[in-house]
From TrEMBL:
GO CC, any one term: plasma membrane
Annotated compartments: Cell membrane
Coiled-coil stretches noted in the UniProt entry, renumbered to this chain: none
Lipid bilayer topology: Multi-pass membrane protein
Membrane spanning residue stretches: 25-46, 88-114, 126-146, 152-168, 252-275
Protein name per the record: ABC transporter permease
PROSITE patterns, A to Z: ABC_TM1
ABC transmembrane type-1 domain segment(s): 86-275
Keywords: Cell membrane, Membrane, Transmembrane, Transmembrane helix, Transport
Length: 288
């Protein structure tokens, strides 16, 4: 037991060493830590009341010492709305990616491990969903269920599942042929235990990378749906909703568009850079 723990620690240290060699990935990790920290400690940075407090005299005022990012058309502090909006955007990105990962892992691992009829049924259903572009699939689900945060999460998760199933199935197909899996079968180990104890843990490298980079896509999808009015509804300060609200004031108050847009780009970029770094760090062929 101690030897196995020591081996895991040494593997984690090696992955971290490789990750640190990628400077852009480290920069992405720093940006990601700052954005996540902003979301976690939003109430300490600026009270939520600033998001909803309307000050008529301060309407559409540009950035200043009193209002770092300026104010919107109702006099609400834009800095407070961007800071607290990070909670919505990051929560949607992480929650949808994890939910899609769990469902995709169950379906993809079952298809790759059992093969035959199970594989054919799952793959054909996935093929049907893959025929529809993810954003259109999300729009269809939101249109059917209604525009709110819960339905937005469901819609984005549904659009993300088919890609996860395909990826995990392809990885499991190679892992399922390994000798330790055959040995586990010979000992009478249940299929569920083999899948979750031996197959999926040894296929986690590509899965972790894909999930990390998928969070970026989910944040952009949520922002896009909110931008066209099919996502989180006002007055919730989600970044996409802030962009949608800023359309009317594109020329008179461009800062309303700039600051939420910057944070959407930075968060998306950070997750992508970290994902690229993990791709290199988890590559077993990388020797240096």
């Amino acid at each position: 037991m101690a030897r196995e723990k020591e081996k895991r620690n040494s593997q984690a240290a090696e992955i971290w060493r490789r990750f640190r060699k990628n400077r852009t990935a480290v920069i992405g990790l720093v940006i990601l830590i700052l954005i996540v920290g902003m979301a976690l400690f939003a109430d300490l940075i600026v009270p939520y009341s600033k998001c909803i407090e309307q000050v008529g005299a301060d309407r559409l005022q540009g950035p200043s010492l009193e209002h770092f990012f300026g104010t919107d058309e109702l006099g609400r502090d834009l800095f407070a709305r961007v800071v607290h909006g990070s909670r919505y955007s990051l929560f949607i990105g992480v929650a949808t990616s994890l939910m899609a990962l769990v469902i995709g892992a169950i379906l993809g691992a079952s298809a790759g491990y059992f093969g035959g009829m199970v594989d054919n049924i799952i793959c054909r259903i996935v093929d049907i969903f893959l025929c529809v572009p993810p954003i259109l699939l999300s729009l269809a689900v939101v249109a059917a269920l209604g525009s709110n945060m819960q339905n937005l999460i469901i819609a984005i998760t549904v659009s993300c599942i088919p890609g996860n199933v395909r990826l995990i199935r392809s990885v499991v197909l190679t892992v399922a042929e390994q000798e330790y899996v055959e040995a586990a079968k010979s000992y009478g180990t249940s299929n569920a235990r083999i899948i979750f104890r031996y197959v999926l843990p040894n296929a986690m490298g590509p899965i972790i990378v894909n999930t990390t980079m998928a969070i970026s896509d989910m944040i952009l999808s949520a922002a896009g749906l909110s931008f066209i009015g099919m996502g989180i509804q006002p007055p919730s300060p989600e970044w996409g909703a802030l962009l949608s609200n800023a359309q009317t004031y594109l020329f008179s108050a461009p800062y309303m568009l700039v600051f939420p847009g910057i944070f959407i780009v930075l968060s998306s970029l950070a997750f992508n850079l970290v994902g690229d770094g993990l791709t290199d760090a988890l590559d077993p062929k990388l020797k240096d």
